[in-house]
Design a protein that fits this description.
It holds the Pfam family WD40. Keywords: Repeat, WD repeat. This protein has 219 residues and is mainly beta. The chain folds into 2 domains: 136 residues, YVTN repeat-like/Quinoprotein amine dehydrogenase (Methylamine Dehydrogenase, Chain H, 7 Propeller); 81 residues. 0% of the residues lie in helices and 53% in strands. It contains no helices and 20 strands. The strands form 5 sheets. A 5-stranded antiparallel β-sheet has the order 1-2-3-4-5, with no helix packed on it.
């Protein structure tokens, strides 16, 4: 399985690989031999700010922390089975990108701009099409998928200062959202995670939200 870990580190267990970033480079390290291969200068000299791996371990995404000479920050999709060669280059964010997240089905990629950018973009990976880019009212400090059904369309949640928002891609690729009322109006939400409670056929999960004050809200 592929595991996304905080701090730009990804582990692909069946390939015995650890993937991490070092400024402008992507490093592929074998867990057994500790040998390394470096994908140098992956984003035209810009520092790499995030990595993401698709659920089936076939696609690796990376993004830059600032725009390059083309005037936008770049997202690069690489084929894991294709020797990590570049398959797609996606551009929309005028400033840097902080977060990348593949949908469970692998059909979509979410990219969130940094605090200067404040845009949220949804990409259709099979075509490389930008489905939607929306300017958010604030910077979201946490983002998580909500749906784990491979047949379902993309559902995710974002949290930030005094904000908890649910998002969904419709069958016609419209981006819909719903703002959830918080128990306390002035909470600064810093992180979000979805934890399974019951396995199939129930597929029950809870949403855990962390706050700046050190509390955890369970939904």
């Amino acid at each position: 399985n592929g595991v996304n870990v905080q701090g730009n580190i990804i582990s692909i267990q069946d390939k015995r690989l650890i993937i991490f970033t070092s400024e402008t480079d992507i490093v592929l390290q074998n867990k057994d031999s500790e040998s390394q291969r470096v994908l140098e200068n992956s984003h035209n000299g810009q520092h790499i700010s995030a990595l993401a791996i698709s659920r089936d371990n076939t696609l690796l995404a990376s993004c830059s922390s600032a725009p390059d000479e083309e005037g936008t920050a770049s997202i690069i999709i690489r084929g894991v089975e294709d020797d990590f060669n570049k398959k797609l280059e996606l551009r929309s964010h005028k400033n840097g990108i902080d977060t990348l997240l593949f949908s469970y089905c692998g059909e979509f990629l979410i990219s969130q701009g940094n605090s200067d950018d404040k845009t949220l973009a949804i990409w259709h990976i099979p075509t490389g099409e930008l489905i939607k880019s929306t300017l958010c009212p604030l910077y979201y400090s946490g983002i998580s998928l909500l749906e784990n059904d491979l047949e379902s369309k993309l559902m995710f949640a974002t949290v930030g200062r005094e904000a908890f928002r649910l998002w969904k891609i419709s069958e016609t690729h419209e981006l819909l959202f719903y703002d959830v009322e918080l128990p306390e109006a002035e909470l600064n939400l810093t992180s979000i995670s979805v934890a399974p409670v019951l396995p199939e056929p129930y597929n029950t999960s809870v949403v855990l939200i962390g706050t700046e004050e050190g509390d955890v809200i369970i939904c």
